[in-house]
Amino acid sequence: MRHCSVQVRGLLTREELDRYNALMEVGSYLESQNRHDLAYAVQQEVDRLILPGIERLKEKGRQRDRDTEAYLNAKREAAELDEDEDED
Questions:
Q1: Is 76 exposed, middle or buried (0-12, 13-18, 19+ CB in 10 A)?
Q2: pLDDT tens digit string along 10-42?
Q3: Using an 8 Å Cβ cutoff, are 1 and 27 in contact?
Q4: Cα torsion at 27, 32, 33, 39 (round to 10°)?
Q5: Which of 16, 20, 78, 87 holds its CA 20 to 30 A away from the CA of 72?
Q6: Is the pLDDT of residue 88 over 80?
Q7: Are 18 and 46 in contact, with CB atoms under 8 Å apart?
Q8: Could you give the C-alpha distances from 48 to 9, 10, 21, 51, in angstroms and in order?
Q9: Rounded Cα gap, residues 74 and 85, in angstroms
Q10: Across residues 39-49, what is the average pLDDT?
């Protein structure tokens, strides 16, 4: 069974995380019993389950980019104001 990243797991809701852990346990058991055909079906369900967490991680990254852009714009504006004051 393939695990998702720690970052994605950290953004899952409690209910999603509980379901994720249960599915991983079932999948691991199936693999230990050499039932890879059934473990594959469980892995597909895990992959669908983590999609909301992946989207939350992407949104977090986009928000960080917006915050960085706003910070750089504010810093640039402050530098321009300082230059104007120095010229006077």
A1: exposed
A2: 999 999 999 999 999 999 999 999 999 999 999
A3: yes
A4: 20
A5: 87
A6: no
A7: no
A8: 13, 16, 14, 6
A9: 17
A10: 97
Burial (0-12, 13-18, 19+ Cβ within 10 Å), 56 = middle
Q: Name residue 27's amino acid.
A: G
40-45: long-range contacts, CB 8 A cutoff, minimum separation 24 = 42/1, 43/1, 43/2
- CA-CA distance, 40 to 50, in Å (whole number)? 16
For residue 35, what are its two tokens? 């039932």
SS3 86: helix
* Tokens at 37, concatenated: 């055909």
